[in-house]
What we know:
Elements: H1 2-24, E1 27-28, E2 39-46, H2 50-65, E3 71-77, H3 83-95, E4 100-103, H4 112-120, E5 124-128, H5 134-139, E6 146-148, H6 151-163, E7 171-176, H7 182-197, E8 201-207, H8 212-225, E9 229-234, H9 237-249, E10 257-259, H10 265-273, E11 278-281, H11 284-301, E12 308-309, E13 313-316, H12 317-322
Parallel strand pairs: 2-3, 2-4, 4-5, 5-6, 6-12, 7-8, 7-9, 9-10
Antiparallel strand pairs: 1-3, 11-13
Helix pairs in contact: 2-11, 3-4, 6-7, 8-9
Amino acid sequence: MYKFTQVLGRVALCALAVALFAGCQAKEAPSAPGSEKPRIALIMKSLANEFFKTMAQGADDFHAKNGDRFELIVNGIPNEEDVAGQVALVEQMIARGVDAIIIAPADSKALVGVLDTATKQGIVVVNIDNKLDAQVLTERGLTIPFVGPDNKAGARLAADYLATKLQSGDAVAILEGIPSAFNAQQRKLGLEEGVQAAGMKIATSQAANWEMAKANEVASGILNEHVDLKAILCANDSMALGAHAAVRESGKAGQILITGYDNIAAVAELVKSGAILCTVDQHGDQLAVYGIEFALDILAKKGAPEDRQTPVDLVTLDSLQSAPAQQ
């Protein structure tokens, strides 16, 4: 455990340095003099998380093919708990007078205030990935469209698939995301519903805040405390990687099933090898693209369309083996 934590610490420090640089110095394509193209800012959560790196790459690829339509500024925060840092990024984009902000909020409530300020400045705001709190939006009389998946339904896919591998009464654990995040709450609900519907027993449900190192620590404690555990259901893939390492270090590899959510490359490889049972693909490479396209529609039509739901798909060994080969 100590050796793993040391390695994680070194990796985390390197990732943090990269993310801090990315967050402080926004990545922006140069604009032509006199350009009238709308400027769109993409503000994400931790760029140390592969899911958000994939999201950023998807946005960059889309912009490369559509650079005549808009300018793109890409921002991220050092880690998913740096809410203040994300608020500051929104304030910076307001000061720069961008036309639209596409945001995956680190907190469903804490970002509403600064986004309200943005809308009052005439900036189009589109919410992706983690839905803003409906009650707080209502209290402010604010409407911000959400473009993203049904996180509860996506998590239920993983729990239902796990149920086909276990029996009624089997004990499982849940690793949650940041409790104040709407997507974390929804994924927890989806996992709980699937587990309960199958008659399995939730031994414990604990927050690991989306982070691999934290998940490794929490999962290690759970494995020591619950010796009859059969599975760990994780609300994202970073936590699934931490849980996988904890299971391996405990000597229980092959005895404890693990599920994830996000379909990052590292977890997809572990699904292929059988080390992780399944994950859920919310098509991270397209999430920002959906948001950008939505913002461009709003800017063109001068309206505020309804929320738009995006797809989620279960990823298993069978689905990966049957997928067409990449050219």
